[in-house]
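Protein modeling request. Please complete all fields; requests missing the sequence field cannot be processed.
Requester role: graduate student
Desired output: 3D structure, token encoding
Chains: 1
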Amino acid sequence: MKRFHVHVHVEDLDKNITFYSKLFGTAPSRVESDYAKWMLDDPRVNFAISTRGHQAAGLDHLGFQVDEADELSELKQRAQAADMTLLDEGETTCCYARSEKHWITDPQGIAWEHFHSLKNIPVFNEAMPASVSQSVACCATASSSKSCC
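Delivered output (149 residues):
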């Protein structure tokens, strides 16, 4: 099953945690010094906020989180069949999680992340293996670098 993913860049993490906790009627499932995430079931959404990076406050990226590897493969095949430019990060770490992921960008330049989370990790991201291009940053898209999930 898929879960819709929204990531918003914020200027004041504590103020936004308070706002979104009231909006969603629940506290975040994960809070770090620069990041918070709500894993909601109604609606089924992974909603994340962060203060990382240097972009203006607002929408960072959208996406789909999947429960199974075959669902991720299906999303990748759909993007490739539609001739969408795809950035395949493979297994990587980002947003306090190890995930398998790829990215596409819509005609407006909004990044879409498709990912399957494998496990939580204690840091925002880990150093990338030498086999991965150094130009690919955490949460990079086909057209630009993003701060992260």
